[in-house]
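Thread: quick sanity check before group meeting

JM: Hey all, I'm pulling together slides for Thursday and realized we never actually wrote out the predicted structure for the chain we discussed last week. Dropping the sequence here so it's in one place. If anyone has concerns about the input, flag it before I start.
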Amino acid sequence: MSYDLYFARRAPGQSWEEALEESRSPDLAAWERVVGRVREILGEVRIIEYPPNWEMDHEGTGISVNHWEGGWEMSAPYWTRGEGARRTVDVLYEVARAVERESGLECYDPQVGLPLAEITDTARAVEAFDTVADRFGARTEAT
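JM (edit): ok, ran it. Output follows.
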């Protein structure tokens, strides 16, 4: 179970559901730029390449950035709660903004039901982490 973010190119008036269902195409140039930006933010990441799928994972936070069959998505496990969850969400959103800049796509956070550009407070995202952590037991390691 993870906190997920999705990326799409939406036409004016198009719903997120419609945008996410549309066909996608791999963008390897954007992938390479995203890898560089994510390394600037997170440091060392593990890269797995099996075209048409590319994935990068950060061990410390569990954040994963995926470019699968032309689509983009991110996830972070619900390992933390409280202040640790806030730090994870801050980093998750920072990486998501880098993906947006480098791919030209827009990020959508289905847990809060908003595009990243409209999220002004991380409280609802942190609340989602807290809720799941309370159910399954929070990881004790700090991010």
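AS: nice. The chain has a mean pLDDT of 91. The two ends are 18 Å apart (CA to CA).
JM: adding both to the slides.
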